[in-house]
Amino acid sequence: MLQLHNVHKTFNANSVNEKHALNGLNLHLNAGDFATVIGGNGAGKSTMLNAISGVWPIDQGQILIDGENVTKLPEYKRATYLGRVFQDPMLGTATNMEIQENLALALRRGKRRTLRWRITHQERDQYRELLKTLDLGLENRLTSKVGLLSGGQRQALTLLMATLTRPKLLLLDEHTAALDPKTAAKVLEISDRIIAENQLTALMVTHNMRDAIKHGNRLIMLKDGQIILDISGEEKKNLTVENLLAKFAIVAGEELANDRMLLS
Question: Where residue 186 sits, what CATH number does that domain have?
Answer without folding.
Answer: 3.40.50.300
